Amino acid sequence: MPDGLAGTATANTDYLYGHSRVDAAVFNVLKDLQPGAVASIGTANGTLSYIAQKSLKLNKAEYKINDEVTNAIPNPLVLVSCYRPVGYNPDVPTVQNIVVMLQLDQEVRNGDC
């Protein structure tokens, strides 16, 4: 897929999916990420810095058809995980996803990415 890799010149949206659970998991804190927060992604060519724009809680089927999430535009990063609020019963399947929309920080030197 052309432009399918994260970088400073990508023409598409990049997605990272990760688990959240009651126990330790990579995206447990995703639901707490606020607009303006910075996330960095390491690549073979350097580190990319992104700024969180907004968070959305969407029904599981909805995030796959939400234009705001699925439109291919230059330099965004979308982080997706199950939404598990505090006190969520771990034996019950989740019905929502947390989706965080980030944009590449053009003011930060992002290496040769």
Automatic annotation (TrEMBL):
<dbReference type="InterPro" id="IPR005754">
    <property type="entry name" value="Sortase"/>
</dbReference>
<dbReference type="Pfam" id="PF04203">
    <property type="entry name" value="Sortase"/>
</dbReference>
<keyword id="KW-0378">Hydrolase</keyword>
<protein>
    <submittedName>
        <fullName>Sortase</fullName>
    </submittedName>
</protein>
<dbReference type="GO" id="GO:0016787">
    <property type="term" value="F:hydrolase activity"/>
</dbReference>
<dbReference type="InterPro" id="IPR023365">
    <property type="entry name" value="Sortase_dom-sf"/>
</dbReference>
